[in-house]
Write a structure and sequence with these properties.
mainly alpha, Hemerythrin domain-containing protein, Hemerythrin-like
Length: 152
């Protein structure tokens, strides 16, 4: 699978999980906990392969605009993974705060994914050959499996 298809598939999965989470009620604590764990694992795997493999290749192939996109994407990952997600993980799933934080994470991820798909991936298709995207995709699939396995 080429790098862009892999990342789009990840986006679709995480968005779906976040939508399911947003639709849960305060009483669905077990379901919320299970969905949140699945989101955490998939988000970590996704951001890892982007930051370690895809983004550096994109930045190297690009120009000033791509460098800006690269740094903006890193900051959006930091906001989601280092700020919003840890708060959500530490929030009681039966609380109203949980619902609010889950909504913020969903909106942040949706914005980030949409921006990547409309701008970064479009540029990447012009800057990187089909062969390069396929090679990146293979490396990313392998690394993603390692990250997911690390959650045991």
């Amino acid at each position: 699978m080429d790098a862009i298809k892999l990342l789009k598939t990840d986006h679709k999965l995480v968005k779906q999980l976040l939508s399911e989470l947003a639709e849960t009620s305060e009483r669905a604590t077990k379901k919320r906990a299970a969905l949140l764990h699945e989101i955490q694992v998939n988000l970590k795997a996704h951001t890892t392969i982007e930051e370690e493999i895809f983004y550096p290749a994109f930045k190297k192939a690009g120009r000033k605009d791509e460098a800006k996109m690269y740094f903006e994407a890193l900051e959006e990952h930091r906001a989601a993974e280092d700020l919003v997600l840890p708060d959500l993980l530490g929030t009681d799933p039966s609380s109203v705060e949980f619902s609010g934080r889950a909504k913020v994470l969903k909106e942040l991820i949706e914005h980030h994914a949409d921006e990547e798909e409309k701008e970064m991936f479009k540029d990447a298709k012009e800057l990187l050959s089909k062969e390069e995207l396929a090679e990146l995709g293979a490396r990313m699939e392998e690394r993603k499996a390692e990250v997911i396995a690390s959650f045991g």
